[in-house]
Amino acid sequence: DPACGICPVSEWCLDPTIYEAPKHQSRFPGSPRQLRGALVRAHLEGTDLHEAGQALNRSAAEISAAINTLRAEGLVAPADSRE
User: CB count, 10 Å around CB of 58?
Assistant: First the structure.
């Protein structure tokens, strides 16, 4: 039963009877996406961002670059004291 009235893709959906939700993406171990996700989770949990990156065996340079990108995108507070 499609619920077109509350569906977030209803504006561009051509036929609700054939719509298939996007497939779940894998975690891509070692990818920048995995690192970014870990850093955002750490931020939300109030834990140390650098420790979260180190737990993935990432270099300090990779972690800092990811944090700076997340800050520029507004996903991590600019003066986050939890890092």
Answer: 21
How far apart CA 41 and CA 54 sit, in angstroms, is 14
- Do 53 and 23 touch, CB atoms closer than 8 A? no
Which own/partner contact pairs does 30-35 have at CB distance under 8 Å and 24+ positions apart? 32/66, 35/62, 35/63, 35/66
Amino acid at 24: H
The answer to whether the pTM exceeds 0.70 is no
At residue 64's C-alpha, the angle toward residues 61 and 68, to 5°, is: 135
pLDDT digits over 25-69, tens only?
A: 777 888 999 999 999 999 999 999 999 999 999 999 999 999 999
